[in-house]
């Protein structure tokens, strides 16, 4: 049975990351006073990057398994 948990987790992180980035882009004010960075935008990008890494790792494992 070829069950790779990285693909559904990558989908989850990509959806949440895109939602966070969208919220960060639509609300230009930082939600916390004294913070000069839009935290939602930054962490949405981090979550999206993590999802890409998980997706690449899952596809790489599938390719190596087929050899």
Keywords:
mainly alpha
Report on the architecture of this protein.
The chain is mainly α and 67 residues long. The chain has one domain (6-65). The chain is 72% helix and 0% strand. It contains two helices and no strands. The radius of gyration is 16 Å and the shape is elongated. The two termini are 17 Å apart. 15% of the residues are buried.
List the helices and strands and how they pair.
Blueprint: H1 6-26, H2 39-65
Helix pairs in contact: 1-2
Q: What is the chains' assembly state?
A: single chain
User: Rg from C-alpha positions?
Assistant: 16 Å
Total DSSP helices: 2
Arithmetic mean of pLDDT: 87
Question: By helix and strand content, what is the structural category?
Answer: mainly alpha
How many structural domains does the protein architecture include?
1
Strand percent estimate: under 5%
Helix content: over 70%
Separation of the first and last Cα atoms: 17 Å
User: Using DSSP, what is the number of strands?
Assistant: 0
Shape: elongated
Largest sheet, strands/sense/barrel: none
Order of helices and strands: HH
Low-confidence spans:
none
């Amino acid at each position: 049975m070829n069950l790779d948990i990285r693909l559904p987790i990558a989908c989850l992180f990509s959806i949440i990351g895109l939602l966070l980035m969208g919220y960060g882009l639509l609300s230009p004010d930082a939600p916390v006073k004294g913070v000069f960075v839009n935290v939602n935008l930054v962490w949405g990008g981090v979550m999206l990057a993590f999802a890409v890494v998980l997706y690449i790792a899952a596809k790489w494992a599938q390719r190596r398994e087929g050899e």
